[in-house]
Specification:
heterodimer, A: 704 residues, alpha/beta, 7-stranded mixed beta sheet, two-stranded antiparallel ribbon, 31 helices, 12 strands, B: 75 residues, mainly beta, 6-stranded antiparallel beta sheet, 2 helices
């Protein structure tokens, strides 16, 4: 007989902060895949474990306290465990419980038993419980529940081997039920649901009754059917759910009383660290200091690999264009595709480092303290305590910031956070600010304050004002039935698990490259085509005139000058050039001419492209990164009426425009990836552009 | 005297009498805020920010309006 070898699926589930992800990471290592669940923004984490020649598929489910879904995360756990998800139907479920929080863990575990799942329980962090003078009689729990229980510490290698062995021997068991749901819900109703949906389990039928109406994967007709059934007998499900919770906890308390032995006089709980970290004044000072150190480190350390990456790709495209016969293919590869890939890779150091720091803060338990401290200040703007991290990350780069918004459970608060994070002044705005400030703000010090520095600081504040104002606006526009709440555990402080930190850095970078990378590459190729092609006859004419002039050149300076002028002319006549001229009537009131229009369109790729584009437009030869030459050149630009192009009004109008406008395709791509659709990135781009336009208009009209 | 948990002074312990009906009742209960349990207010964020309660072996942070759903008796 041929046996069909099917990889068994094991789902890992547990309350938040029980070390569930550590177990998942240790079991699967680098063999992880991050995918999507249909219809939600939650990531699906699946990995494979190999043990003694067998392979197992492990699914890491989001942490939850119960099978009552409150957030998108919990909807997923609910859906998979209720076997409602078509693609993911785990055969076995491994439930991880924190040994010092037995009753909370058993609440979920007994619900899983009631669902009739093949279950095993891991009592994790046994060492911490011992430290707290708690000892657990595992056998008592086994007697009461009837499912295999393993008491261990998954941070050690021995504990992990025990877990692998448990999975390998399929030491899971299905135990009828823990709580008879028929006691709170009429059995006739349950029977009807079971018949309708072809179910065999009463608790599953009850879950369908309770949550089927709000789960979008269930057909509308079925949802209506459930609604009509409930109305028919006028049954109050919410009351039944409360009743169920009470009975369940009563039964659990009995087990816990039997199983947990607290040694007399537990040591006085150390809350020493928290009295510093949560101090009403000191706590904020420490938080600010940690942020400062973090960003200093990111700016200082990330710039080294970023420069290397930059140099590598520049050299690569030089080599490739030398190797390939010159023509459209060669320039597509060396000027379109290679810089496009480079534009994706360049973000990896910042993403990896930021998420490395965040993983450390999360793992040590400090992050929930930040949420505790900041929630009060975020709430008036429709944000959550957890929004602090994305917003603060936005100062370095909006991309990891938007990715960090993932942890916010409430849909509305998550969307608001994603929408406003790109308004923070990121590091890519700096080059634009520096050039323009140098141009129009005198380098003078008045009463110890340097005017240029003051202007820069003002631009950063403007970003924050934009964030808070927009968040407040969205708070009043977006509608949701989800109730905002903050119920977060402040876990004990502990040392970070470095392997988890490294895996987080790796996974976040990979997700960015694989998913946002495609969009970034596509847009950069399109922009390259627009900037290097134009109406052929006109482009050819410019090229041949340039060559004729070049032939007559007598010195290398002249050659350089002619080449710079030719590329400037080519850009002017390319499709982007034509578009730049096309939008001139629209940007005229902001004080911009068509040359600035070209730079605006080209710098949609990334803000810093503004600098290199104007360098090309004004045919600035030599080192285009040299601020001084660019500044001098810009200063010489004169309008037909004799006025300087880059006068104070125009420069400030431009700065304001760059403070608010989207102008970053990578952010667009990452918002697309995080919201799993084009709706929000498009709304965001339109909104930010409109905000930028109107603000720049206002500033120019006042100053000019 | 019955109070709600948001009125517990810092470092004071109280015993939970009842969870007031609201959509969040079930969330509080699944976290272990149940009648009969003792809670101690450990920290309170400034300007009416969240409050951190010790419940069994863990510290849980709630917003003030969530804490006001928990009826307690001071010990």
């Amino acid at each position: 007989m041929i046996s069909i070898t099917k990889t068994p699926k094991i789902a890992i589930i547990g309350n938040p902060n029980v070390g569930k992800s550590t177990i998942f990471n240790q079991l699967t290592g680098l063999n992880q895949k991050i995918g999507n669940y249909p219809g939600v923004t939650v990531d699906k984490k699946v990995g494979t474990m190999s043990y003694q020649g067998s392979t197992y598929e492990i699914i890491d489910l989001p942490g939850t306290y119960s099978l009552y879904p409150n957030s998108e995360d919990e909807v997923i756990a609910h859906r998979v465990l209720n076997q409602l998800s078509e693609t993911e139907k785990p055969e076995y479920v491994l439930m991880v419980i924190d040994s010092s929080q037995l009753s909370r863990g058993l609440f979920l575990a007994t619900q899983l038993i009631d669902l009739g799942l093949n279950l095993a329980i891991v009592l994790n962090m046994a060492d911490l419980a011992t430290k707290r003078n708690i000892s657990i009689r595992t056998f008592e729990i086994f007697k009461a529940l009837g499912v295999p229980i393993l008491s261990t510490d998954a941070r050690g290698e021995k504990g992990l081997d025990q877990i692998r062995e448990l999975i390998h021997t399929r030491n899971f068991s299905k135990k009828g039920s823990f709580l008879a749901i028929e006691e709170v819900v009429p059995i006739t109703l349950l029977e009807e649901v079971k018949r309708k949906f072809n179910m065999s389990n009463n608790y599953q039928a009850y879950q369908m009754l309770r949550f089927g109406r709000i789960d979008k994967v269930i057909a509308q007709a079925d949802r209506d059917w459930i609604k009509s059934k409930l109305e028919e007998i006028n049954f109050d499900l919410a009351a039944a759910q409360l009743e169920e919770t009470k009975i369940r906890y009563r039964k659990i308390t009995k087990i816990v009383d039997q199983a947990v032995v607290k040694e007399s006089h537990p040591k006085k709980e150390k809350s020493g660290l928290d009295s510093i970290f949560l101090h009403p004044v000191l706590g904020y000072v420490i938080f600010a200091a940690i942020l400062l150190i973090m960003f200093q480190a990111i700016f200082a350390w990330a710039s080294v690999p970023m420069d290397l990456i930059d140099g590598f790709f520049a050299e690569l495209s030089g080599k490739v264009s030398g190797l390939l016969p010159s023509g459209p293919i060669s320039s597509l590869i060396s000027e379109g595709i290679i810089p496009g890939i480079g534009g994706v890779v360049i973000f990896i150091p910042q993403i990896a480092m930021l998420f490395g720091f965040l993983a450390i803060l999360e793992d040590t338990g400090y992050m929930s303290r930040v949420v505790f401290l900041m929630d009060r200040w975020m709430r008036p703007f429709g944000l959550h305590g957890k929004s602090v991290v994305p917003l603060v990350s936005g100062v370095a780069c909006a991309i990891p910031g938007v990715m960090a918004a993932r942890n916010i459970g409430n849909w509305k608060e998550k969307i608001i956070t994603i929408m406003v994070t790109p308004l923070m002044s990121c590091s890519a705005r700096l080059p634009v600010y520096v050039i323009l400030i140098g141009l129009v703000v005198p380098n003078k010090t008045i009463a110890f304050v340097n005017l240029q520095a003051l202007t820069l600081l003002g631009l950063y504040f403007l970003g924050i004002i934009g964030v808070l104002g927009t968040a407040f606006l969205l708070k009043n526009i977006l509608k949701t039935t989800e109730k905002s709440f903050l119920m977060v555990e402040l876990p004990s402080y502990r040392a970070p698990r470095w392997w988890d930190v490294i895996l987080t850095m790796y996974n976040k970078s990979r997700t960015f490259v694989m998913e946002a990378g495609k969009v970034i590459l596509a847009i950069s190729v399109i922009l390259w085509v627009l900037a290097s092609y134009g109406p052929p006859s006109r482009m050819d004419e410019i090229r041949s005139t340039g060559e004729q002039k070049l032939a007559l050149a007598t010195s290398s300076e002249m050659e350089e000058q002619i080449q710079a002028e030719t590329s400037s002319l080519l850009l002017e006549n390319s499709f982007i050039g034509i578009m730049g001229r096309g939008i001139e009537p629209v940007i005229r009131p902001l004080g911009y001419d068509w040359k600035i229009g070209i730079a605006l369109i080209a710098s949609f790729a990334a803000r810093e492209v503004f600098v290199s584009t104007i360098a090309t437009i004004y045919s600035i030869g030599g080192d285009p990164e040299d601020d001084l030459t660019i500044r001098q050149k810009l200063n010489q630009q004169i309008r037909p009426d004799g006025e300087k192009v880059y006068n104070t009004a125009t420069a400030f109008s431009l700065m304001i425009f760059y403070a608010f406008a989207m102008q970053c395709m990578s952010t667009l791509a990452v918002v697309y990836r995080e919201t799993k659709g084009w709706k929000w990135p498009l709304i965001q781009t339109v909104y930010m552009t409109a905000l930028a336009y109107l603000s720049a208009l206002l500033v120019y009209q006042i100053l000019s | 005297m019955l109070k709600t948990a948001d009125q517990i002074p810092v470092t004071q312990t109280a015993v939970i009498k009842e969870i007031i009906d609201s959509p969040l009742k079930i969330n509080l209960m699944e976290l272990g805020f149940l009648p009969g349990k003792e809670i101690t207010l450990k920290f309170s964020a400034p300007m009416g920010g969240p409050m951190a309660f010790k419940l069994d072996e863990t510290i849980l942070a709630l917003r003030k309006n969530e804490a006001s759903l928990i009826e307690v008796q001071l010990l």
